[in-house]
Hints:
This protein is α+β, with helices and mostly antiparallel strands. Helix content is 33%, strand content 47%. The chain has one domain. The chain is built from 1 helix and 4 strands.
Amino acid sequence: MPYSHNTTIELCGEKYAAIVLFEWDDSPFICSVEIQRKVKQFYNEKGEYAPITEIVNLSITKMLNDRQLCALADEITAEALCRAEEDRTEQRLLAMEIA
């Protein structure tokens, strides 16, 4: 079952919200990377004014090289380690309250 990680990616000087789908074995294995962009449309197909905002997803997995994929994996690992440390600290505090 793939997990997801939200991040930002810079392409050609523009920053994009990105979702990284990965599987976790001993380390994260990147399955796909999608960037998201909001697109505003002011007129519908009939030419009537009807403003809407859509979110468009674009897979950029094949555009990334090994160094970029490793950087994303390192970011995911660092976040997981941080969460694990927070969980251990919370468990210690709970144990101290019970004792």
